[in-house]
Design a protein that fits this description.
The longest helix has 22 residues, at 3-24. It is built from four helices and 15 strands. Helix content is 13%, strand content 51%.
């Protein structure tokens, strides 16, 4: 083999290795920008059932001013939380009811999905509260539980079992846009998923390591939908077949040694699949496995469109 052929072969091998490393191991790009102006809806409700057990989910997405966000974000006991940058901040509220557990999540994030704060309140069988306040290089956690029977059922502000603490972000986590799982509804609403092969990724915070959750369109199908569409004070029943996008969620840790043991989305843990309306850019149906319950599907019951 001639010398220049050997050099060309060696360069090709190096290029292939570099491409392989970037595809499988490099952190997800931080450059993507999203506009909330693309969001066509502001409220979604879903419902499903299995073995006489029901699962109900409510999602609200709205915009608040920068000043209002500053008032609502908590101040860590030391250091400063991330300051809201955009003139308008996306505020998401998700309420979920399943198998004797009521959960409510509220998330404040920049339009590019960068999370500022996430609050979760768990009621029902187990009661506890936690707020994550995101900082530049770490995350402050304010966790609380009822200390005794007299505190159970009372507002979380009165609970006296307190567990404050900080979680450090390493260089790989600081190099990506960190978000929270509830932002997935907003992301699908603004990410322009239109055809097979389209995909979008959300970097979801987890104490054991940030998880890159990619929603990938893998097919299309004729899906029968039956839900109420509300707009301008009018309600219309939508009961027809539409060409829906079939999507799967693929999750992976962004750093070596990470794991997916605690990764969940709305209680779903494995084989998470979605049907998406490419015109409204909203999730029509979510399927997956829930612990102690098994395979569950929830379907869109109502959507409120923006004016």
């Amino acid at each position: 083999m001639k010398l220049w052929d050997k050099k060309r072969l060696r360069i090709a091998k190096i290029s292939c290795f570099a491409a392989f490393w970037v595809f499988f191991y490099a952190p997800v790009s931080v450059a993507v920008e999203y506009s909330p102006d693309k969001l066509k809806w502001n409220h979604l409700t879903y419902s499903g059932s299995k073995f006489f057990m029901s699962m109900d989910t409510s999602v609200s997405v709205g915009l608040i001013s920068n000043d209002q966000a500053i008032q609502e974000l908590i101040k860590p006991p030391e250091g400063d939380g991330k300051h809201p940058v955009s003139s308008e901040i996306v505020k998401i509220n998700v309420q979920n009811k399943v198998v004797g557990s009521d959960t409510e999540f509220t998330v404040w994030l920049e339009p590019n999905t960068s999370v500022l704060q996430r609050t979760s309140i768990y009621g029902g069988v187990k009661e506890w509260y936690r707020t994550y306040r995101f900082m530049d290089n770490k995350v402050f956690s304010d966790k609380r539980k009822p200390a005794n029977r007299s505190e159970k059922g009372e507002p979380w502000q009165s609970w006296s079992n307190l567990y404050p603490g900080f979680f450090t972000l390493d260089d790989s986590e600081k190099s990506v846009v960190i978000s929270e799982s509830e932002a997935l509804f907003y992301l699908i609403g603004v990410a322009d998923l239109n055809k097979v092969g389209d995909q979008t990724t959300l970097n979801i915070y987890d104490r054991s390591g940030v998880i890159a959750a990619t929603v990938k369109v893998v097919g299309t199908t004729q899906l029968l939908v039956d839900y109420q569409r509300q707009q301008g004070g009018r309600s219309t029943r939508i009961n027809k077949k539409i060409a829906a996008l079939e999507a799967v969620m693929e999750a992976r840790p962004i750093k070596a040694g990470g794991n997916l043991d605690e990764f969940k989305f709305l209680g779903y843990k494995d084989d998470i699949r979605m049907m998406i309306d490419p015109e409204l850019n909203t999730i029509l149906q979510i399927s997956g496995s829930i612990e102690y319950v098994g395979e569950v599907t929830i379907r869109l019951q109502q959507v409120s469109l923006n004016p």
